[in-house]
Amino acid sequence: MKFGLGQFTLQIPPWDKRDHVQLYADTLSLAQLAERSGFDSFWLAEHHGASDGYNPALLPFLTAVAARTARLEVGTAVLLAPLHNPITVAEDAAVLDNISGGRLNLGMGLGWVAEEYRMFGVPMKARGKRLEEFVEVLRGAWTGEPFTVKGTIFDYEDILVRPAPARRIPIWLGGGTPKALERAARMGDGHFPSSTGTPADAVARAKEMMAIRERLGLNGPYRFGMFIPIGIGADPDQGWANIRDGLLHTRGSYAMWGQGKRDVSSARDVAAEWEGAVRAGAICGTPEQILEVLAPNLEDIIGLGYEEVFVSAILVVPGTPVDLAAEVVERFGTEVIPALRG
């Protein structure tokens, strides 16, 4: 059982008066605090072209995290693979993995925003196939030996990528459609569902993934993770208040991008229309109340026989004041994680 912090989106909503220089510095300090407080990993999400500066470059930022920590694993949740060149990602990831001493987890997905595909000049058609061949290229590249991939999208012959990673970098694949889940079971080292579900939804997905792997005749080691918004406070209402605005801003941004909009300054108000549903996917309250909800769901997933299970707490949402961010990270690390480990 492992415990992560994030996904961090590094958005700046209208009420946050920091610039990205300060936000990045604050977030790097949080990563160091997370390591000291007992967290095992730190995760970032990716999107492009958003007015609030949603983080577009995961591997550079995670390299900075790796350079400031000694034990904390770093991960992408997710890198939008179809928008990238697989050789570039293979090289950047290998360098990051060596800097970190073998602490990178590469989570990948497709994305859904048409504007992002337009930005990069990539067709949305056949993006699932593009992701599959992307994984194949990474596997070949990270052997440290010449490799060839002859696909319908990527065609590489006698390519050498050096240095090789410090370890076999785990590839996590997201997605929620039947085709995406089968791809994740067949090609990934692990799977994590969307952060919009509840802990009970995560249990159901963990069971579904095991069933898919059994149907495909896949019995080797496999990993499962989940990202859960968690609001720590004196009671559930205060806990929700601590994450409400930032979480609604992020959820509203996703909805607005799907409508083709770039300016997400009104995202919090847009998502307020379905605040009840967003709150239902979060765990809010005192550490003891959080444990009451989280512990039995984690026990159910651990009992399924995964090689590794992690839960990553979305404790710090966009616009969270620096002092509150530090407080909730330290409280979760010192009060919740030890109890769950026990």
Strand content: 15-25%
Separation of the first and last Cα atoms: 10 Å
The largest pleated sheet is described as: 8 strands, parallel, barrel
Q: Could you say which overall geometry the principal axes of the C-alpha atoms support?
A: globular
Q: What series of H and E elements makes up the topology?
A: EHEHEHEHHEEEHEHEHHHEHEH
Which strand order spans the largest sheet, edge to edge or round the barrel? 1-2-3-4-7-8-9-11
Q: Kindly report the average pLDDT value.
A: 97
Residues in helix, %:
40-55%
Explained architecture:
With 342 residues, this protein is of the alpha/beta class. It has twelve helices and eleven strands. An eight-stranded parallel barrel has the order 1-2-3-4-7-8-9-11, surrounded by eight helices. Strand 1 (2-8), helix 1 and strand 2 form a beta-alpha-beta unit. Helix 7 packs parallel to helix 11. The longest helix has 23 residues, at 236-258. The radius of gyration is 19 Å and the shape is globular. The mean pLDDT is 97.
Quick summary of this structure?
47% of the residues lie in helices and 17% in strands. It is α/β, with parallel strands linked by helices.
What brief labels describe this structure?
single chain; about 350 residues; alpha/beta; 8-stranded parallel β-barrel; two-stranded antiparallel sheet; 12 helices; about 45% helix
Please describe the topology of this protein.
Blueprint: E1 2-8, H1 20-36, E2 41-44, H2 58-68, E3 73-80, H3 86-100, E4 104-109, H4 114-120, H5 127-141, E5 147-150, E6 155-159, E7 171-173, H6 178-187, E8 190-191, H7 199-215, E9 223-232, H8 236-258, H9 267-271, H10 275-280, E10 283-285, H11 287-302, E11 308-314, H12 322-341
Helix pairs in contact: 1-12, 2-3, 3-5, 6-7, 7-11, 11-12
